[in-house]
């Protein structure tokens, strides 16, 4: 009897407190431009077609579970634009439905979307482009970045080099623009952390490495000066896989091959990450990649902001995301927040080889007055981004 | 058995304490074992092989059996504490991580981490009597001293879910800071405490209204706030202290439960996780996951007295009186 009356009392309380949460329905757009893939030497690891979208879908499910208890519902509107398709009109379509858009597209598309008049009050998440320039001179106040910039990735590697006293590097880069962008980021990080880059070479041999790796790479790397690490800059994923164990000198390989800094990797399992990996694999039937992680983090960022503010207006949501109150538990052991000067999500960077996490940046000893996470990437004082300084 | 050992010890002229002393049982997550610590000698006296990835660990109220979440074996194992033998297994739902035994000494409330479910198992009939949908990655489990309310906290949904144990239904869901890990009611049942690992706080709820009553922050000089991550905690029966494990900051915080003020920090092993008191609460045993050991804290002095090597990644701890 007592139990029942308490139950009744509690039921009344539930109604009372539930009412504090108004019903909120949030639509999130996902916009992708299918990018042409240049031919590569090996067909072993094609990029999954649903890379990014699968991460957004998992984030949506995570948000929906929380929303179920708070009368908040979430829906996803994906739009995939083919290689030569009209990205801007797809963007306009989505902006007519929702101000929240997660984007996996080249920087030029991202900026075209951000600069649309309809996007003025939108909250756009860049989950696909690591271009540091998008967080710098080309930054936009309506674009947040959940994928780490190249600068963050190469800073992580440089910190690792300093930490291990492997400070003499040589660079072997690919000829494509993004390979060269990675190589450029390596140079900047080296300068920032006191790494010496003794020589930098561009891979220009068009032999088929499957047959010739053993002949070509030792010769190509023979004249590198004495070094600690051979750093590969091959974002195209073309020749990099043939470098380990084939260079002239027996040195560890890092960069886009060997020891790789990335937003995420299947080997990350600490801090509850194993549960996220399991949920993703169950949903997508494959392992989670950095772009999936960035799309998931963008979706969860929106979810967190809606949960905590109990509304879905773009302005207040953006304000909350950039406030001190916001934080996201991103399964990397530290709360993840956004840099108020360029909209980049702060996050630890795991350094992994194909079978394990080797270390996670930032490393102890790299100090920062605000948070050690800000030792990775462009810091406020150096930032060329003006759009966030109203 | 105990008597036999006593007699044997006596005839051999050895000390009796090792056979009769109270014990702390520690689950070693990455060794699939339990380390049994003798409280008198502060040494590991037994290592028991159990199921895969043992985490949540608790004794029946009469200490007749031990319940253990063997997470990767998807089961709760029931173990005879005298022999260390596994008596039988309980259906637990998938990936049981943590659980709490109802004061009726019969119903286990189990968090199924991978399934977003809380499973209620009757330990007598060995049947599942209810499954309750909760948030993503349920972990922390608590039950009020009067048995009327059970709590599940969900790590990714960031909530404490309040379960009416009469109907086995949720009657409230309260938001806490990022990544809640552990929940406990105060001994008088008037408050619910929930730790948030990534949020770095403990939220104190008033039980009657389910509203937030206080929030406790932690600050350790020389350690960045990001690394101060409250996880497991235990309250003394005398209402003087709450001990809070602060994960990778390698410290235990001492909180005054009346004022919610942190009064002290105690350095322990690496990535401190959960803890258990001995019978008179004069000693506290903390599991230190990364360093693979247990720190023994003198509760009166609020100081560590010994470190005991156990298995790999010790997770939970439970006290067993033997007298």
Model regions low in confidence, pLDDT < 50 over at least 5 residues of chain A: 1-19
**Estimated radius of gyration of chain B:** 19 Å
Structural class of chain A: alpha/beta
Portion in helices of chain A: 25-40%
Short description:
The complex is a heterodimer of chains A (390) and B (323). Chain A is an alpha/beta fold and 390 residues long. Chain A is 35% helix and 18% strand.
Description:
Chain A has helices at residues 2-18, 53-68, 87-97, 107-114, 150-164, 177-193, 209-221, 273-284, 290-309, 314-321, and strands at 24-33, 72-81, 100-104, 123-126, 143-145, 168-173, 196-202, 229-233, 253-255, 260-261, 328-329, 335-336, 349-353, 356-361. Chain A has 390 residues and is of the alpha/beta class. In chain A, the strands form four sheets. Chain A has a five-stranded parallel β-sheet, with helices on both faces. In chain B, 5% of the residues lie in helices and 52% in strands. Chain B is built from two helices and 28 strands. The interface between A and B is medium-sized, with 30 and 37 residues.
Structural key phrases:
heterodimer, A: 390 residues, alpha/beta, five-stranded parallel sheet, four-stranded parallel sheet, 14 strands, globular, B: 323 residues, mainly beta, four-stranded antiparallel sheet, 2 helices, 28 strands, 5% helix, 52% strand
Topology:
The complex is a heterodimer of chains A (390) and B (323).
Chain A (H helix, E strand, L loop, with lengths): L1 H17 L5 E10 L19 H16 L3 E10 L5 H11 L2 E5 L2 H8 L8 E4 L16 E3 L4 H15 L3 E6 L3 H17 L2 E7 L6 H13 L7 E5 L19 E3 L4 E2 L11 H12 L5 H20 L4 H8 L6 E2 L5 E2 L12 E5 L2 E6 L29
Parallel strand pairs in A: 1-2, 1-3, 3-4, 4-5, 6-7, 6-8, 8-9
Antiparallel strand pairs in A: 10-13, 11-12, 13-14
Chain B lengths: L1 H11 L4 H4 L2 E6 L4 E6 L4 E7 L4 E6 L6 E5 L4 E5 L6 E6 L4 E6 L5 E6 L4 E6 L4 E7 L4 E6 L5 E6 L4 E6 L4 E7 L4 E6 L5 E6 L4 E6 L4 E7 L15 E3 L6 E4 L5 E6 L4 E7 L4 E6 L5 E6 L4 E6 L4 E7 L4 E7 L3
Antiparallel strand pairs in B: 1-2, 1-28, 2-3, 4-5, 5-6, 6-7, 8-9, 9-10, 10-11, 12-13, 13-14, 14-15, 16-17, 17-18, 18-19, 20-21, 21-22, 22-23, 24-25, 25-26, 26-27
